[in-house]
Amino acid sequence: MTLLAKPFVFVRHGETPLNRDRLMGGRTDAPLTERGEQQARDASALLMRQPWSVIAVSPQQRARRTAALALPGAPVMVVPDLRERDWGDLEGRPLSEQTPYEETPPDGEGWHPFCTRVTDALNALLATHDTPLVVAHSGVFRVVCYLATGTPYGERIGNVTPMWILPAAAPENWKMIPLEKMNA
After folding, report:
1. For the chain, which terminal residue's Cβ has fewer other Cβ atoms within 10 angstroms, N or C?
2. Is residue 3 part of a domain?
3. Three-state helix/strand/coil letters over 31-96
4. What is the pLDDT of residue 59?
5. So what's the pLDDT on residue 172?
6. How much is the pTM?
7. Which residues does substrate bind (predicted)?
8. Which pLDDT tens digit goes with each residue over 23-41?
9. How far is 77 from 18, CA to CA, in rounded Å?
């Protein structure tokens, strides 16, 4: 699996009650908290500066609401395969109980099928759009990290922290830079 070598910006949705409480919430369609809604509104000025070729969002309400608040009135493309990983029986359980990414959680979605659907969705966007903005989930970002650096492990991306994903000659050398630093 590889990503097409084109830049894009990734934004994780705003805070939800589940991630605020450090609980797994993959397929659970949790709403944003008041803080999550404010995080999205706060990102508006930064995100509105860019001429996005497309704003692609997960179908889950937390991603759609983040996009609507951060980019009011902008058209979005809902991309079903950008939805979060299904954690099966671990949904709603503490993050401390999460299985390693490469393992399939009980009655959940396996790592390889998850990576495949996310990679296919991202590559379809990159093949047809010059500078997409992707609004999705921390698990989707883990797939991006895996494809760009060779590992899904590392610090969790913050809520509504826009990141430039910049290709390099070798996939494991891609750069991920906060959008605010690129626009400084």
Report:
1. C
2. no
3. CCCHHHHHHHHHHHHHHCCCCCCEEEECCCHHHHHHHHHHCCCCCCEECHHHCCCCCHHHCCCEHH
4. 98
5. 65
6. 0.95
7. 12-19, 62
8. 999 999 999 999 999 999 9
9. 25
Q: Does residue 172 carry a catalytic annotation? A: no
Q: 2 in a domain, yes or no? A: no
Q: What total number of domains does the chain contain?
A: 1
Catalytic-role residue among 34, 37, 84, 97: 84
In tens, the pLDDT along 64-107 reads 999 999 999 999 999 999 999 999 999 999 999 999 999 999 99
Return the pLDDT at 174.
87
Tell me the pairing of strands 8-12 and 54-57: unpaired
The verdict on whether residue 12 carries a ligand-binding annotation is: yes
**Do the domain assignments include residue 44?**
yes
Residue 16 assigned as binding residue: yes
- Give, for 166, the enclosing helix (H) or strand (E): strand 163-166
Q: Is the pLDDT of residue 163 over 90?
A: yes
Contacts within 8 Å (CB) and 24+ apart, 102-109? 108/26, 109/26, 109/85
User: CA dist 104 to 61, 86, 91, 151, Å?
Assistant: 25, 10, 13, 17
Residues 6+ apart with CB under 8 A from 105: 87, 88, 89, 90, 98, 99
129 is catalytic: no
- Is the model's pLDDT at 184 over the cut of 70? no
71 known ligand binder:
no
